């Protein structure tokens, strides 16, 4: 599940970034921001996909990705709701949709990380009770 969630995040981020850089749909965001975010998504997507191909993805990196996705998703929702940019109607829908998708990736990755930890015995172990 974890590897699937990482690969899905990687493919979606890479594709969104590539579309943003190549097509640059009119969403009401400054072109420089749009290109910069698109390029970030291309490199991020390639990196996350690569992490998903590893036999045992590093837990610490996965946790950073989960936290980053939650921050990105919250920022996307705030960007649309607080009108930090003069987004068009289509831009608002796209920003909200990708924000919710990114939060969804974080949830899938968290579930996958927990199940991987349980399967390998690397999860939280109960404390032993000593009488001393």
UniProtKB/TrEMBL annotation:
Does the entry feature the keyword Transmembrane, yes or no?
Answer: yes
UniProtKB keywords:
Membrane, Transmembrane, Transmembrane helix
Q: Which organism is it from?
A: Lentzea flava
* Taxonomy, superkingdom: Bacteria
Q: Supply the name of the protein.
A: SPW repeat-containing protein
So where does this one cross the membrane?
Answer: 31-49, 61-78, 84-108
